[in-house]
Amino acid sequence: GAAMGMILGKITVETPKYKSLEKKEDIEIREYDSAVVAEVTYDPKTMKSGRDGGFMILAGYIGAIGTPCNKKGSEPGEKIAMTAPVITQEHGKLAFIVPFYFCEVMMPLN
Q: Of 39, 44, 41, 32, nearest to 62 (Cα)?
């Protein structure tokens, strides 16, 4: 399953809507609606950045660093706003939830 990780501080980016199913002292179980994600599977051992390598690939895809790599045909890529949370899973999977406004133009990462 997906591990959302810990969120510290104030979140100032778009977040998906959810329903809180259960709250305990240090944990909250949430149910999220379906969402479109930009996801990468990678081997941290082969990346210069180690386990942060997947984040850098996705950050490049959305244009958080440099020119966006989400081209549509011959048109240049479009910057996609960062969202929270970033979804991490075991075995080198990392995903950003795509902002609602951008879902129709999302293209696969080459």
A: 39
Distance separating alpha carbons of residues 90 and 87, to the nearest angstrom = 10
Give the separation between CA 11 and CA 80, rounded to whole angstroms. 17
Amino acid code (one letter) for 22? E
72 and 107 Cβ atoms separated by less than 8 Å: yes
- Quote the CA–CA distance of 68 and 85 in Å, as a whole number: 20
Q: What is the pLDDT of residue 40?
A: 85
Classify residue 70 as exposed, middle or buried by CB count within 10 Å of its CB (0-12, 13-18, 19+).
buried
Residues with Cβ < 8 Å from 75, sequence gap 6 or more? none
Which tens digit of pLDDT belongs to each residue from 40-71? Answer: 888 777 766 555 667 888 888 888 888 888 77
Would you give the end-to-end CA distance of the chain in angstroms? 25
Q: Which amino acid is at 50?
A: G
